[in-house]
Give the backbone structure.
Amino acid sequence: MSNSIKVSVWRGRETGEFQSFDVPRQPSQTVLDIVTFIQRNIDPTLSYRFACRVGMCGSCAMTVNGKPRWTCRTHVDKVVEDGEIKISPLRNLKVVKDLTCDMTEFFDKMNKAEGKFHPTKTRNDDFDVVLPDDPTRQLAAQGIECIGCAVCYSACDVVEWNKDYLGPAALNRAWTLVNDVRDGGNKERLTAISGDSGCHACHSQQGCVKHCPKNLSPTRSIIGLKRATMKAALKGEI
Amino acid sequence: MSNARVETKLWVWQRLSAAVLAVCVIIHLVVIVYAVQDGLSAAEIISRVSGNFLWLAFYSVFVIAIAVHAPIGIRTILKEMTSVGPGATHMIMATFSLIILAMGFRAVIGLFNASIIG
């Protein structure tokens, strides 16, 4: 292990350039550690976003050597190429400054996909019983651990081609709610996610699956949605 | 018909035609390999397919499945890769489908009715 690492960091907005820094190597160093080192010791004007540092909050995702990654859980050893690391903002999102993206569009699409809970009961009703081995609960469980980091959104070529495409995370969220027995919004949800920017636009390329830091499969969720919309269309519900 | 319904139905049609094509392509390729064993000539092909109603039915299904499947894919490519509007996209889809049907059935009917001259 050499003593330092050459780091190229994107500076600017939609237009800008890469700036080089030499950062000391440390054992078990993460990419987020590198960015933090630059900001605290070399250039305090560097903008980036993070919160939890332990892979829970989904705010520190960046493009590292061309691939979208959660930087707090990405070890430098794993991604360094010839002693160099290139860090840029996530693809498919507007850049606010340097490594910080505007996540508005990403979260707006969660709403457009009806990724919100539609309650069917009041506080006077009894609890629903959802058993762990219930098939719908298990389907929901496969997608429920999404942290909303937008790595999948950045990895998705369909998002690049079709700016209105809802994207893997929003569709995955919709699928977890389709399988929530307590939810009553499936008619609206299936209508919302089956338009020309919805699940049928997915090519099953699985860039989302390859890069998801939580090892989820949004593609599998989207396939589930395609089948659900087919059943709803045959029944005349959408 | 709502946008959601159109997109879902197009997806179903493309899936159904893909399932038909998967079977058709396998039979098509296996028969080609099998038929070539006895040598490949125009006379050999025509003697095998001409007047054969089973052959006619199989390739009619094949052509129809392609005419359904391919234009839906072309539509997606036009939507994603070009700035062609929805109206023009549907015209191109319909034209492409008709061309496939015309060319496909011209070949199928031509071979079904063919006879060896001389």
Summary: The domain at 4-101 of chain A is CATH 3.10.20.30 (Ubiquitin-like (UB roll)). Chain A has two domains: 4-101, 104-234. The mean pLDDT of chain A is 96. Chain A has ten helices and seven strands.
